[in-house]
Amino acid sequence: MSNVTLGDVPRSIENFARRCATRDGEESIVSADGGRPSNGQRAILRAVSHLRLRSADDYAVCAFMLDCGQSIPLHNHPDMCVHMRVLFGRAHVRAFDFVHDNVHSELSTKEATAGNGRRHQARLVFDETVFESGRGGAFTLEPHRCNVHEIRAVTPCAILEVQTPPYAVDGGRDCHYFEEVEQASATEFLLREIGCPDTFECVRFNRHGEFDAYT
């Protein structure tokens, strides 16, 4: 388990927010010689930012920073409960329930990446803008409720997320991505599993708000 304490969480968020507040300020990532960022480093500045605050076998606490218009594409949290809270700004969340209970056992990242992902009936159950803490900013998904969801930043925003348990490929909890391929009614959709979209880029920071990895 990480040795970060709960008291470190506000400081981590503060550092994280300060370093990500101005993507074009170029203050969080500099080139090797201390100069202005390279084109690749600029791409990192434009990516969705992810901060891992604490992790254990049975839970993980993390945060995401998104610029206005950025999004985390339609994805799931298999056999997981996730509590999300908007720390600042506004984000629009759309969430689906699969019509059939056995969908998760049929998902395959390998097949989806190869373009052979299966289609599954789903029902839109949540389609709202959530606000910062204290103004309706909390959202919870469960294994069979709102589990497939996407997040789009209406304004620059940060979202705190508690996952129980966290993603674990070996534990059958891999992240799967989806796209809408057909809409039968206002709430009835057909979703197809796909590989991680090429348009989705995420940069990871450590708990001190320092650059860690680009994925």
UniProtKB/TrEMBL annotation:
Q: Which organism is it from?
A: Ostreococcus tauri (Marine green alga)
The record's family statement is:
Belongs to the cysteine dioxygenase family.
Q: Which reaction does it catalyse?
A: L-cysteine + O2 = 3-sulfino-L-alanine + H(+)
Q: Which GO terms describe its molecular function?
A: cysteine dioxygenase activity; metal ion binding
Q: What is this protein called?
A: cysteine dioxygenase
Against InterPro entries, the record matches this protein to:
PCO/ADO, RmlC-like_jellyroll, RmlC_Cupin_sf
- Tell me yes or no: is Oxidoreductase among this UniProt entry's keywords: yes
Q: Keywords of this protein's UniProt record, alphabetized?
A: Dioxygenase, Iron, Metal-binding, Oxidoreductase
Q: Does the keyword Lipoprotein apply?
A: no
User: Per the record, a Pfam family?
Assistant: PCO_ADO
EC number(s) from the headed UniProt entry: 1.13.11.20
Biological process annotations from GO:
detection of hypoxia
